[in-house]
Structure formats: C-alpha cells, structure tokens
Design a protein that fits this description.
The complex is a heterodimer of chains A (294) and B (450). Chain A is mainly α and 294 residues long. Helices cover 72% and strands 2% of the residues of chain A. Chain A has a two-stranded antiparallel ribbon with strand order 1-2. With 450 residues, chain B is of the alpha/beta class. In chain B, α2 links the parallel β1 and β2.
Amino acid sequence: MEKRVTFGSWTIGILFAVPQLLLIFTFFYWPAGQAVYWSLTLQQPWGGGNIWVGLDNFRSILANADYWNSITASLVFAGISTGLAMFVALVLAALTDRQLAGSRLYRVVLIWPYGIAAPALAMAFRFILAPEAGFMAVVNQVWPGFWDPGLDGTDAMASIIIAFSWKYVGYNFIFFLAAFQAIPRSLIEAAAMDGSGVMRRFWDIQFPLITPTIFFLLVINITESFQDSFGIVDIMTAGGPANATNLMVYKIYSDGFKGLDYSGAAAQSIILMLLIVVLTIFQFRFIERRVHYR
Amino acid sequence: MMIIKRGLAALAAGALSTALAVPAFAEPVKFDFWFGLSGDLARVVDTLCKNFNASQSDYEVVCTSQGNYDATLQNTIAAFRAGKQPAVVQVYDVGTATMMLSGAYKPADKLMEENGYKIDYADYFPGIARYYATSKGEMLSFPFNSSTALMYWNKDAFAKIGKTEAPKTWEDVGADLQAMKDAGYECPMAINISANESWQLMEQFSAIHNQPIATKNNGYDGLDARLEVNKTKFVQYVTDLKKWYDAGLIKIKSKDLGQDMVQAFASGTCQVIMTSVGDHGTVGKTQKEGMKWDVAELPVYAGTERKNSLVGGASLWVLSGKSDAEYKGAAAFLNFIHDPKTALFWSTNTGYIPVTKSGFDYMKAQGFYDKAPYKGREVAIASLTASEPTEITRGIRLGNFTQIRAEFGTQMQAIFANKVSVQEGLDTLVKNGDAILARFQQTYPGKTLP
C-alpha cells in the first residue's frame, strides 16, 4: 500500500501554495513595494498629485542632524534595554530553575508582565517614574533635581528603557526557563556529585547549553527594541525632551502621521528596515559562531 | 403643535408600515460628522448631535469621535483616499493651510448659499473668521469650538503681596512673581514647554504684540513664507521666561511630570498659569475649596499697543464627493450650529466661546456672564476683539504647522535644559521650521493659497 501522498504534477503543489503566497504578497510585498515607491516621491496627503523626486527624501533625511540623533538614540536604547532585559531574565530563570519552595509561583508572577499591553504598561510607568509623585518624589526631596525626565534627556531615556526591559524580562524569562528545564538533570547531578558548585555548574554546563536560546532572544530583543518601543515612547515621553527619546520608529510615526509627511516617513522606514537587516546579518555572522547547537 | 402633529404622523406611519410593511415616510438622509474631541467634550458633542436630529426629521447626523485632532485628520485623509470620507469633519486651527490646498473640500459659504441659507459673515468675530477665510474673505470652513489664551491668577496669592489686580505688563509679572517667591510661594507661575504650548507661548504672544511668526504675513501671502521668530520680540520673551525659570519663579508642569498646569493652578500649588479659556470650566470644577481666582488677558511688554489674540480650537469642513442630499443635511447642520441658542448650549457645557457677535449678545442677554462659574469668560472675547485684526494677527497660514509646533517643543526643551542658548535654540527652530515649510511648498508645486 502506498503510504505517501503523491501528486501527479508540480502544478498542484503550486496550487496549494497559492493562498499563502497571495497573503504574503498582499500584506508584505505590496505594502513594502508601495513604501519604496512613496520614498521616491513627494506624496500630497490628500492624494491627487505625487511628484517624483528620486533619492531626494533620503538625502534630506540623512542631511538632518535630528535624524542622526534619532539613530544614536535608537542604538543606545536597543543596546541597553536588550542587555538589561536579557540579563535580569537570565538570572531570574537560573534562580527559579533550582528546586526552591514556591518556584511555581515565581514563574507565574514573572511571566505575567509580558501579557500587559504596551500602552497600559507605559501609563503605569509614567506614574511610577513621575518626578513629583511616589518614590521618585521622595528621592527628589532628599536630593533635589536628581530625577527630571521632563527636561533631562538621560532620565527620560532611562525611564523608557526601564519600562521596555520590564516587559521583555517576562518574555525572555519564559524562553530561558524552558531552556534550563530542557537540560537533562543527570548532567547537573553528575557535576554536583563531582563536587562542583552552583556557579561552576552554571558556567560549564548550563550556560553553554542555553546559548542557542540566548542567541535567539538576542536577535528578537534587538529587533523588537527597534520596532515595538513605539507605544512606550509615545505615552511616556513623546520623543522628548529635546528629541532625547525620539527613536527611529517614533520619528517615523510622528513625521508620517502627525506631520502628514508620508514620503519622508516611508524613506525612514526603509532605512530602519535596512538597519535591522544589517544588524541581524551581523549577529548571525559574528555571534552565532559562539553558539553551541546540540 | 408641530410636535404633536409630527407625533401623530409618526404613529400613523408606524401603524401603516406594520400593517402594510411599506414605509410611509422616506428615511431621513444620514450623513457623517467626525470630530476630534474626547471625554467630557465628546459627550457634549453627542448631545448637540441628538438635539439636531430631534430638531427636524429630514436628516440624521451620525457623530463619531476620532479621539483627538491629529487622529481625526489622519483618519479623514485615509477615508478620503478610500472614497469613504465623512460629509463634515472638524479640523484644528493649524490644519487650515493643509486643508486649503487639499482640494478635498466644498467651500462652506458656497454650500450654504446653494442650499438657500443666508449667513451674515460680518456677524463672526473678525479674529475668528479671518483665521478660516481665504485672503479674499470667503469662509471655507465654519468656526466650531473656539477659544483663546488667558492668564489665570490666584487672587489669594496676589493679595498676600498687596495686589488686587492681575499684572498687565510682563515687567509687572516679573516683579509680582519675585514678590510671591519672597512671600514663600514655591511655584509662583507654571508653564509647560511641549509642542502644544506653542499656541499660548509663541502664537498668542506674537499676535498680541503684533509680531510676525513668519514672513509673507504669517504665510497668508504665499507658500514661500519662512519663520522669523528668532528676531522678533519673542526672543526677549523666551529670555525672560528662562531667566525666571532659573530664578525659581517659574516651574515646569506637565502630565508626564505628574501634574499638569491646570491641575497645579486649581490645587493652589502654582499661582499663575496661561492656558485656554476652554479650561475655565475645569478649573472651576476642580479648584481647591474656597480658593479665589480670576482670569485676565495675557500681559504685554510695557509700551506695546495690544492687538487681538488668536483664536484656537477647530472649524468644520465639508468634504467633497458627497451626494446633494447629504450636502443639504450638512448645510442644515452647519446652520443649526450657527444658531445663537446652540452657542449658548455649547458654551454653557464647555469652556468654548461663542463665535458670533449675535451669539455673544444673546448669551449676555441671558445673563450667562453674570453667573458664578462662567463669570470671567467674557475676557476671552475682549482679548479676541482687542483690535481689528492686522495682517499679522488675523491668523497663521503655514503648512505642516504640527511639525513646526513639535520643533518648537524640542527647542524650548533644549533651551530650558541649558543645552543651547535662547538665541541658538530659536535659530535652530527657524532653520528646521523653514525646512518643513520648504518641503510643504515643494509638495504643492505651482499652487497658491486661496
């Protein structure tokens, strides 16, 4: 009896692939193509007349000091928030992986933050980190002017990094915990019997075995910090003060939607996309080499 | 009598249609109205819409809040590009130049004329009308919710320093703030320096001092207008504000910092603020028990001949591409809003001001401005009509002004954080603002403002 399903010709295969191809084309390639077209024209917001300007949009963006400032801010934000979110999640996962009383409760509590929508989270952190209310007000009373995200760009950047990392700690935690749990107990028990301590076991056994997860999360976290930070920035700082938190993705939103400069925003999206592609390639070329796949 | 007749007719129609399953009356013509107000104000608009629908049976307006002004414009543009635009849309003051070049509207004055409504345009306060009219005086949109900026001052705090009146000049403001500081007030005056405050700090200040924001009469005379706020009296103003901020006479208050200006004033924390007359109701409702306060016109520098302040708020645009029946409905709706009785309802329930002289007179005659919570709001009218509008004080006609306001916020923050000097900050504002204006001009080659 023939067990494998075979098709008479390759055309049927194509036929089955068509719905998916159609979806990908409609929701990805077509809009992406349109963004490329828009970035090469000047779009009148109400439609009607579009002027072909070639690479002018890119030239004017790249000649703008604010845009370079926005790239720097995005890189700083991505670097610090990814590092923070991954480090904290790793430590928490390593701790909960051990046989502790109530570790199940910790897991649930730590997973929760990821389920909170960005705007709600940003609103909460806006209150938590407000300089004139709550904990920060007390700090400011002891040390006047210590915390002022309304005027101090560094403080504003710190507040969005804290909010963003807090959300991704939960996300990263799930993956790290799964990775730890996938490590055979026997390996760790054997090491323990040989007399190695907790730290030694972590660095020599657990850490190398979870490097694929670390790498995966690194790629995801960096990409998300470029793309998913928008809601938090909009509610917490609106790109200010003085453009200190005007991340690339937020600048695209404010130029495109608030400023009705569709062409400039399209050109910026393309630059952002290229930057993410470059960063991802970089990660695969230089970091993946250190990853041990089993 | 009318109502009873209509009620009977409706009953009869209902009986008929259930019996014969044939509608005896034509359904009212439905048309959409999109607006940008939310919360409490959105509920007032909804009531306004219900009142219109109840006032006649031919049309039914469907009113939908889009959340805020930015979103309303974005959604309307998206809808227009898809051919599903509303008949009437509320667009904020600074969207006027963008709307005028859109080619997407039906001039409101033409609409009214075609549908047999006679509107006396001279009845509008000139400062309000000219913001929304072409250079020839044709009203392309109708002012809807209008406001202007006022100075709110705490009478108790001023009494402490021996004053019974609000300061009239900026020189006096400086002295009074210092006196209040010396009297132990932590926050004599509160300001905010985000994009939105461009309205009271830059735009209103420039108007009452008859100082231009941009060349070409603030853009009325051409798309090649460029900013010039780095060489007007505005430089002195920012310098003073910064000086007072450094001396602890002014505190920055915003929502992101935990308390906005209006809350800071209403709670008695800060003694002076400048904000829209639209906040008059909020201060009254949320003020500290027993606090005495009042409003006054924004101060001017000594020796300045005061000019009219600018209108803020939004106007109603009728979009192109709708059916004649919908236009009839839209015209009836605009006419309803224009009615002095509607003005009274609107101003009572919001802090906005009447936009016509007849509306203002009607409200005065009804004793509106003598009653406790509304007393003082007439100052807004006085401020708007302080003079005949000049070439500069009739309004601002600059493209992509939202982006210019954003740039204003950015540079003010840089100045107040000591990253740049006042002059450097304003120079950058002009440089970046000009790039925005040049881009707008490039987007509409060969076009001129109507």
